[in-house]
Structures are given as C-alpha cells and as structure tokens.
Please model this.
Amino acid sequence: MQQNAQYIKGEVCEIAENTYTKKFGIHVTTSHILHYNNENSNATIIGDLTKWQELPANMLDCFICTVTLNFIYDYKSAIKGIYHMLKPQIGGGGAIHNLIAKQNPGE
Model:
C-alpha cells in the first residue's frame, strides 16, 4: 500500500471503513466509505458493487479494495462497479492494481 500512496488522493473510497485512506492518503479531499446497507453509520455511500448501475458514477479518484473481491460471487460486476465510480481520465479506463483501483494505469 505504501508504494502506491501517491494514488490515494482526491476523492477516495474504501469498503466498510477508511483505515488505509487515513494511514496512506496524500491530499485526500474526501474520504468515502461504501457499505451495502445503512447499518454502518460512517458510510457515505450505500450500495452494492455488483449493482453498479445504482452506484454514483464518475466521482472517485481512488478506490481502495482490500479483502473484498474474493468474497463476492459476481466479482466481474463488482469490478464494473469500481470502474463505474472512478472518474474518467483522458483516454478513459482504469486498472485494478495490487490493492488499489486507480486511473492512469501506466503510471
């Protein structure tokens, strides 16, 4: 995570908590927490990654995803959900890199 700290900036989102954002984030403007229901009082985004059409679009600069995708049966839709939430960059796209989904995968 430390080696990718330069990507943890701007609008950042984690699932259930924001531990890594607080520990490694640089120039974070907003730290979002995604939770699948409203039982997490710290959640700023309520939604299911596999129902990506219902998630906010193009709002995040960074999505930190640790120990989650391996527990989701429809992981391909969950990855679409992550991409859906990431802001588009010149040339579009993004990448799942190590534990962080980031834009500009060539960096």
Q: What stands out?
A: The chain has two helices and six strands. The radius of gyration is 13 Å.
